[in-house]
Amino acid sequence: METYLRMVDLPYQNYFDGKLSPQGKMPWIEYNQEQVSGTEFIIDFLEEKLGVSLNKNLSPPEKAVSQAVTKMVEEHFYWTIAYCQWVDNLEETQKMLAVSGPLSDLLKWILSRLTGGIVKREMYGHGIGRFTKEEVYALMEKDMRTLATLLGDKKYLMGPKLSMVDATVFSHLAPAMWTLPGTRPEQLIKGELINLAIYCERIRRRFWPEWFVDLEDFCYGDTTEDDDSPSKLQDLGLYSRTDTFQDEASPPHTHTHTISPDSDLTGHSLYDSDMDTECSEMEQLKC
The pTM is what? Predict the structure, then answer.
């Protein structure tokens, strides 16, 4: 949901109070005192209210493929990654939990076991939790290979431009990419299915610039000022791309990320000049 909001350039404020929607779901949003829960319903609501859309350039067959891939990822691949995260690698996941204080180790242990138990129970109810570990990983690998084949050498799942399915696929591949070290999904995405890793890094650099960046060194260029002094990265609790980043190559009313560095350690570009080739795309979403 957050990745989608960043892709359509809608500012938002996160609340981490654990409050569920009236339907008992997460995520949910409140817009002008109107509550909407469930990712699909939230996106439909925002498209109707604010006129934003990532799929407007897709043909009807492409929209159908996008919907099918979205459901494969949300209703199938999600559970295999959840199994890897919260069942098979619970000890490693426990270490990553953001808990501090004098009883942090105990709280991490309790939280990880509670969450792991919930995941196992829900997986069993779904049906996928009734298979063996090897079978669950076999299902996960099939989904990842399907995504890698569909992506091929394209920049995004449906072609040269972003669509809604990219928000879904990126968000579900992110754990395999960054929070499951040494596991089968990480070995696949950073090995045989390397095109998925490049795809994730492309989107990460464009929409999640605060990941893995030293905030003391990170700065953005403000073309409204003539001096070269850097400005610190703003608090991204309230995130808006138009408030935070500006592309010098864009018209005065168009803003986008200016992320550096733009290559990996080998010197190869990881995102193929995404920043300047699509600088007007987000502005069109608002029209």
Answer: 0.73
